[in-house]
Specification:
four-stranded antiparallel β-sheet; cell projection; 2 domains; FliL; cell inner membrane; alpha+beta; 173 residues; single chain; cilium; transmembrane; Tetrahydropterin Synthase, Chain A
């Protein structure tokens, strides 16, 4: 038989409906907070990557929008291939073969390198012959070599200055 609703049952029904509504509101609130955090985090990440012109990491777009300093044309000065003996403790011959390009942003600097190229190559030869194979281990070792070579070029072409030394090929035998 069907049970007739009593006053007690009638009082419990609306309470269950209110609990369901409260649970639904809570889920909507959690979803909204999650969406705000997700959008805010994505916006902050985009800002720090430089997509909004901020002072962040200078992402893929960097200063391409015409903002900030205009980007200069980059030129590369190719140096002849060099092969040198490396300094070793034992009597085994170890050779370093290297092809280098110098990065400059000014045509006048590129023009000043050619007349003093023998001086630059001599400075490179003297420095590279004193290296050991352990000096060339890893990216940190190569970075130190690049910095030292850049210093030597800048001394040879002073008061002009290059921007970077680039390894096109480096082989140790």
């Amino acid at each position: 038989m069907a049970k007739k609703p009593t006053q007690k049952d009638e009082a419990e029904k609306p309470a269950d409906g209110d609990a369901a509504k409260a649970k639904k509101k809570k889920m909507i609130l959690i979803g909204a907070v999650g969406a705000v955090v997700l959008v805010g985090g994505g916006g902050a990440g985009a800002y720090f990557m430089g997509m909004f012109g901020g002072k962040g990491g200078g992402g893929a777009h960097g200063d391409a929008g015409g903002h900030g300093a205009p980007q200069k044309d980059v030129m590369f000065v190719e140096l002849p291939e060099m092969t040198v003996n490396l300094s070793t403790v034992d009597q085994r011959a170890t050779y370093l073969k290297v092809r280098i390009a110098l990065e400059v942003t000014d045509k006048t600097v590129a023009g000043k390198i050619q007349p003093v190229l023998p001086r630059v190559l001599d400075a490179f030869q003297v420095y590279l012959r004193e290296l050991r194979t352990s000096d060339l281990d890893g990216s940190a070792g190569l970075f130190r070599v690049k910095e030292e070579l850049a210093k030597r070029v800048n001394v040879a072409i002073y008061p002009s200055k290059i921007d970077a030394v680039l390894f096109k090929e480096i082989i140790i035998q």
